[in-house]
Amino acid sequence: MPVQTEPRNLRWLFSRLFHWLAPYRWIVILMIVLLLVDLAYESVLPLALKILIDNAITPRNLTVLIWVLAGLVVLGVMSALSALGRDYIYARLSANVLSDLRMEMYRHMQGLSMSFYSRTQIGDIMSRFSSDLDTVESALIFGVPMGIYSGLGVIVAGIILFAIEWRVALLALIGVPLCLVGPRLIGPRAQRSGYEMKRKQAEISSTVQENIAAQPVVKAFGLERLLIDRFTAQIADYLLVSRKANFLANLMERTPNLGLIAFNLMVIIAGAYLAYQGQIKIGSLVAFQGLFLNLTYAVSSLSSVLPNFVLATAGMQRIDDLLSQQPEVMDRPDAGTLGRLELDIQFCDVTFSYGPDQKNLCNVTFSIPKGSYVAFVGSSGSGKSTVLSLLLRFYDPQSGSVLFDGYDLRETTQDSLRSQTGVVMQENFLFNTSVMENLRLSKPGASDEEIISACSAAEIHDAIASLPRGYDTVVGERGQRLSGGQRQRVAIARALLRHPSILVLDEATSALDPTTEASVNDTISRIAKGRTVITVTHRLSQVVNADRIFVMDQGRLVESGTHRELIAKGVVYRAMWEKQSGFSLSQGGDWAEIDTVRLAAIPLLGELDQAMLEGVAKAFVTEQYPADRFVIHQGDPGDRFYIIVRGKVQVLRSNNGEAPEQIAVLQDGDHFGEIALLRNVPRTASIRTLTPCIMVSLPRGQFNNLLVSSPEMRDRLENLLSERMSAINSNHGPSL
């Protein structure tokens, strides 16, 4: 998110506050009227003392005494009532303005493109809704009414002072602007420091949020002390900035008070001298001093709210930074409305990148006919999910075009595209509300009958009906009260509720166990009839019946065709298929087996003869891991070799005690830890599951037992391993 390099001033803050107060101008006017009633009482009180002393007490005039005291009682009651009314009105006014501001921020965020969320930390956004808005709230609730009251107080007190004794009043009012010199000089530095402090607060919020999410990695790598040290340094940096910001803000408040003390003494001396000389009456001196104290209090109050305004300026600037963000994907003013798909979807020489470092798609061209079932496959980072992001218009291509029945998506409305598109992702977000409300979000006007029909089609109605409160059951945060299969079926029902002509599946079943995956895939196959289905997956067994398979590699479309055509003529696809083939998996995923053909494709094991391969295949054991679990840790003794049957893992490496970095992502058919078959060396990286995983592993002891009868084979494998390790080390790859 862009950061303002120059701090805003108080004038800018007041203009922004008045902008948000403008819709309530009549309420503001009423509040000012009530303020004037309260101010009138405080201004009249010193004058009443003058009349009491000079015209009632000294000449002992009872009538004047009674009338003055009665008038004070009436004004006091009016002042008290106006103060109560003012407090009530302003409580409503400030609450409405802050609600408007929150709503505007929230509404604006809904229109921002996915690129904004990909480059902005969540903690930074949250701090704008919390600490930044808190400072604005403080200024609005305390600063604005106090500022208006004090400002009016200075004007009224000044006018009456001149009416009583212009010479002393002139001396008093000369001091008022001089008292504001300090805040004027210190203000820019205070505002700059305040903005820097708010930015540091946002960084701390992001660090804490990231730390909470990364606790499995923190524990696995023993990073507690390292992260505490980093956070300590971050807090120390914030401490220096906050000390400076708070000191400068308080200094803005303090300098006017110091000046007022000096001028207060000068006014007392001058007034006392004039009274001694008989040039003014005693009552006038008392009234003058009372009014000057009111003036002093008003100026002091103005200076006391300056720190609030300084911090609010920084907070409002950060809020404006958010509100000034413009979506990168916008509907043009003359954008047309897409009808339901009639012909095809085309990518025409599309190039796209999320950042300047590399192209995520490069000159990609293909066509998806209406009613066809197509799949995009490829390794992690090959660009297949980016194709979906452009198809759903989360982003626009840098060059080329995405056509929908011949219409460039950039020339059509986003709503008309997405209203006919149903999307089921790997992790479908469910809100912490009822099942019914989660479903109705897809189509707010849907009737209960429509929702039940969609759930029946997704084969989830009976499961929902069996929940404690049926469709009114709250699913919990991110839907955690439902199983993985139930969440996916609710997501399918949510997609079906829109009666989509296009069904988009992004790794929709890759995180499910084999039984649930097979069941959900059967449901998807049934509901896909008559629709254009576009799926992204790394599991090739799911797309063998696709009308067309597009193979992505490093952002390019390298192959396309049916499964049979790609097996016969493809290179990348055939290699992926062979890597994922050769496994037998039980229905529940409790056990898995690997055949000798698949084992022979692994370089280290390819040297073994058939008899040894059969022995090795039988020695593998099945292991299951949930998502977000470490399989091996960097530095652990290496004692077994792993092959991923199903699932996806990340390879993490930490250098010199630093926080770990992802160096690779492995998935179905990939293997790791082959060094452990021959040598007892520490693991050079950690493996963490990204999805539930089923693996087969081979312990080194079992492997060595098979090699006992063949020393020559062991020597050959040792030489081969040495060559592979040299190649891996020279390329800095994950040797594990």
The percentage of residues in β strands lies in 5-15%
Tally of discrete structural domains: 3
Question: What is the CA-based Rg, rounded?
Answer: 37 Å
**CATH homologous superfamily grouping of the largest domain:** ABC transporter type 1, transmembrane domain
At CATH level 3, the topology of the largest domain is ABC transporter transmembrane region fold
Structural class label: alpha+beta
Oligomeric state of the chains?
A: single chain
The poorly predicted ranges are: none
- Quick one: how many beta strands? 20
The strands making up the biggest β-sheet line up spatially as 6-7-8-3-9-10
C-alpha end-to-end distance: 38 Å
Number of helical stretches of at least 4 residues:
25
Percent helix range: 55-70%
CATH class of the largest domain: Mainly Alpha
